[in-house]
Amino acid sequence: MTLENIDIFDKIERPLLIAGPCSAESEEQLMAVASALAGKVTLFRAGLWKPRTRPGCFEGVGKEGLPWMQRVKRELSLPVATEVANAEHVELALSAGIDVLWIGARTTVNPFAVQEIADALRGCDVPVLVKNPVNPDLELWIGALERLNNAGLTRLGAIHRGFSSYGEKCFRNAPQWQLPLELRRRLPELPLFCDPSHIAGKRELIMSLSQQAMDLNFDGLMIETHCNPVCAWSDARQQVTPDELSIVLGRIVHRSAAADNNDISSYRRQIDEIDDALMGLIAKRMEVSREIGEVKREKGLAVFQAQRYNETMQRCDEYCSIARLDAEVMKDIFEVIHSESIRQQLNIVNDNPGK
Ligand code: PEP
Ligand code: MN
Predict the structure, then answer these.
(1) pTM of the entire structure?
(2) What are the pocket residues of ligand 1 if the criterion is a CB atom closer than 6 Å to any ligand atom?
(3) Which string of b and e fits 64-73 if b means at least 16 CB within 10 Å?
(4) Which one of 3.40.50.150, 3.40.50.300, 3.90.550.10, 3.20.20.70 gives the CATH number of domain 16-251?
(5) Which residue ranges of the chain lie beneath pLDDT 50?
């Protein structure tokens, strides 16, 4: 899949900012927050149709809010965006002139729903942002983008909003940065956004998550903003006021992604040298593994010996506590090295069956 850049996003300096309330509640609420944001953000967001986890919660004002969005656009010259979850939402949003649509995490997860949206959008190249599915499944995320792309949509973007899990946790939807980064590697032209509000679930974490996203070279942020967050009809804990948003934006440090940055090039050289040394050591370790494989074959000894494996892991654990390394991470690394060592030894045994 190749995707063209979204042109309205292209013209604008990074980071591109999308802000506005989780939900449109009334015309006054929408105009108040939009007036406070006009001139500060690129795109105004407000959910009209709200997918809620449990029935009985506020499920959005629906199409009643479309004229309010039109007023924001007309009176404040602020492009507007809303979430669509089915063909009816798409038709209503398009006929009201909504500038950008987004697909929510609970919809991205469902290929039938995404296909229905893609079919309803066929022939209309409106920008569409696709939030990651609720579960960390990169193929499902890419699949949703492909369904839209196959329907002729080229002005696409992706939003990382974290992944849900069960139990007590620090984040409402924990970020797994490796997924959007892998998405970027596979689709380098695709604009990539972060939604720190839905990752955090609480406003205190929005600053640090926004900084992290900028450090990882995301193209922009979607931040839920409300004039009176504590009274918001949905997601009250995670919304910030327009003033708080300005503080967050003002405090973000923008780091250069340029590869020839002098300040970091000497560190990069050191890292390259260490990586080379690491690979050399691993190659050496595998050579020794093959040699021990020969000996085990000659002596008729089993390749895998649980006692020895436990000792290796124990050594790794002890080293970690001295060297201030994360024992879990090092354990993962050693498991990979150990299993590759076993594979190399098995090759020796299997390649020389007659000896
Ligand atoms: C939202 O943006 O208000 C929303 C419902 O987000 P998500 O799909 O990420 O839960
Ligand atoms: Mn929300």
Answers:
(1) 0.76
(2) 22, 47, 104-106, 131, 161, 195, 198
(3) ebbebbeebb
(4) 3.20.20.70
(5) 1-6, 353-355
